[in-house]
Amino acid sequence: MNRLKENLTGYVLLTPAFVMLGLFVIIPIIYCFWLSFYSWDMLRPNPSFIGLDNYRRLFTDEEFYMTLKRTFLYAFMTVPSSMLLGLIFALLLDKGGKAWLIAYRSVFFAPMVTSAVAVSIVWMWIYHPDHGLMNALLKPLGIGPYRWLNDEQTSLVSLAIMAVWKTAGYCVILYLAALQSIDPHLEEAARIDGATSWHIVLKIKIPLIAPMTLLMLILQTIEQFQTFTQVNVMTQGGPAQSTELLVVQLYHYAFEAFQMGYASTIAITIFIIILALTLLQMVVIGRRVHYQ
User: Fold this and answer.
1) DSSP sequence for the chain
2) Dihedral sign (CA 274, 280, 281, 283)
3) How much is the pLDDT for 195?
4) pLDDT band for position 99 (50/70/90)?
5) 291 falls in which pLDDT band (50, 70, 90)?
6) Residue 85 has pLDDT above 80, yes or no
7) Residue 106 has pLDDT above 80, yes or no
8) Which domains does the chain have, with CATH numbers?
């Protein structure tokens, strides 16, 4: 009886969270899936049922495949770079004095919690072709100037650099937490056996923080596939659609072309792609991860 009472109490306490999850996550996903079978411009009161036409259109849309390829390229540039920089800085901070850790954490985490719109405006100034900081730093080296956001060859790379700067600090914090959870006796025993610092990092620390690496890989992949704000503020998908990513394309069809049914089809496809990538990462990489 007491156990049943405890379970009921737990469910009652979780009810607000379940209600919020249903209202703002589950119901919108179901409605989006339902809407993908309709044609609706948001001006007519009743959508028109068209069956699988939106999906047929999507699978034969060359523009969608180009955007999908561009999004994969963007994620490939940003995710590994953010994680590698996060690991390097976390290893350096792990050797530092404990008194400075709070200050260092604040510095590295600040870009992550700063408004994406504000960060985008600052980076637009950094990338300004005439008065920007980036060209000013490269000029003494005899490099440039470049039209960073205004050139099809450099626009996507420019957005990726900014994304790495913004998300690397998040990886630093998570990696640092994982490193500090490692039993210090393991490192002491390895040093007694003659292991160098490099061997300790490769053979002890990196394998032990593998669960955190897998978690960050999944989270970073999801985040980069949902990139929207910085593109919308800095380039609006241009020049010549060179920075149009999947969510930007979804926004275009939904709120500029008013093709809500087709936009819902793109949204469902993005959901399936992210889900498939997450499962693939968990199956392929998760097998090599050992938990303490």
Assistant:
1) -HHHHHHHHHHHHHHHHHHHHIIIIIHHHHHHHHHTTEE--SSSSSPEE-TTHHHHHHHT-HHHHHHHHHHHHHHHHHHHHHHHHHHHHHHHHHHS-GGGHHHHHHHHHHHHHS-HHHHHHHHHHHT-TTT-HHHHHHGGGT-----GGG-TTTHHHHHHHHHHHHHHHHHHHHHHHHHHTS-HHHHHHHHHTT--HHHHIIIIIHHHTHHHHHHHHHHHHHHHHT--HHHHHHTTT-STTTT--HHHHHHHHHHTS--HHHHHHHHHHHHHHHHHHHHHHHHHTGGG----
2) positive
3) 80
4) low
5) low
6) yes
7) no
8) 61-288 (1.10.3720.10)
Query: Two tokens at 4?
Result: 């049943």
